[in-house]
Amino acid sequence: MDSPRHLLAELARRHAFADLGALAPKVVPEAVLIPPLCEFGQRLLTLDAEDFAAEVDARTVPAGLRRRARDCHMPQTAREQPRGALASLRPAYGLLLEVIKVRWERRELSSMMAAVHIAAEYLPLLAFEPVLGHAGDPVLWPPGLRAEGSRFGAIGDRECCHTKPEKSAAERTLRVAQEPATGWRAYFDRQHSQLAGALATCVSRCRNPCTAMDWIPVDARDGVVARSATARAFADTPLVRLRHAAPVGHGFGVPSPEEVQEAWSRSRLSLARGETGATVLTEDGFPLPGLPALFTAVAAASIAPATLLADVAAHLVRLVEEP
Predict the structure, then answer these.
(1) Into how many domains does the chain fold?
(2) Please, which domain of life does this record's source organism belong to (predicted)?
(3) CA-CA distance, 303 to 297, in Å (whole number)?
């Protein structure tokens, strides 16, 4: 029969951080480092990006794991350093891929679809990162967004193709760096994903172009257009729409594995019509085959599933199995 320690180790390998954190003190009372490390792992698994950089005892979480989590952290003020996911979204998308994989393996499909939805909302910022030099940090927006003739953030301008929420987000993002921390956090809670969509609209769907995007180097424009179009197309795929299919709102309809696979198959065929999106046909063994390749194409940089959750689990296994 498996010993209690072996069962705890299996919980760690299954990324059951919350259960392990609750049960470990009853089995290994001397292992005081286990519950805080489980809390750290659970924040990563639930994509609680506001708290990835929460202060923890250096003895509890190894420095390398803390540093990698901070790379995915969303700064809570305009001045916070380092800038984490506002410096680059690439580490965060690696974590998203790892979470999607773990949730699929645990058959937690509602949580998996939530991670897919988050990836879809912010994907245009990943497409813009090569030309921005950052991942949509409001402190570092190029002055060209405010150039003469720009309608970016012009509330009420009927020539602008942005939706009302996108116009509001565009107007807010140009001034939020001067707001107090509460305003900064409110913007990221409610509007930054709309801003991502607004940028993609500017370069790939605008029927009345203004000067807002003239700052993009000429030799980089075709790439931004193609990557942004693919990012917008991903948000409209059957897979992403699957999360909205429940008749009574989010959370009342959890798709089956077969429904997810069927929706992703149709999504791949739709995305593959574009040159950038064609990378999604890659067969790579990922639960949603081709998704890492698609993110790589949109980012114009390699995006692979992270090993952050796996490394937290491995560290917990060592702690649990120590005599």
Answers:
(1) 2
(2) Bacteria
(3) 9
Q: Is residue 36 part of a domain?
A: yes
Closest CA to 92 of 300, 295, 315: 295
Residues 319, 312: Cα–Cα separation, whole Å:
11
Give domain status of residue 82, yes or no: yes
What span, in angstroms and rounded, lies between the C-alpha atoms of 125 and 135? 6
Whole-prediction pTM: 0.94
Dmax over CA atoms of the chain, in Å, equals 74
**Concatenated DSSP letters for 131-178?**
HHSSSS-GGG--GGGG-TT--TT-TT-TT----HHHHHHHHHHTTGGG
Is residue 37, in this structure, part of any structural domain at all? yes
Residue 165 corresponds to which amino acid? Answer: P
Domain stops at, among 184, 214, 244 = 214
Mean pLDDT by 10 residues, the chain (323 residues): 84 96 86 89 89 67 92 94 96 98 96 95 98 98 96 94 96 97 96 97 94 97 97 96 60 81 97 93 97 98 98 94 76
CA distance linking residue 132 with residue 215, whole number of Å: 10
Regarding whether 149 and 83 lie in a shared domain, the answer is: no
Close Cβ partners of 305 (under 8 Å, ≥ 6 residues apart) = 94, 97, 98, 101, 286, 292
- Does 291 reside within a domain? no
For 62-91, what is each residue's pLDDT tens digit?
999 999 999 999 999 999 999 999 999 999
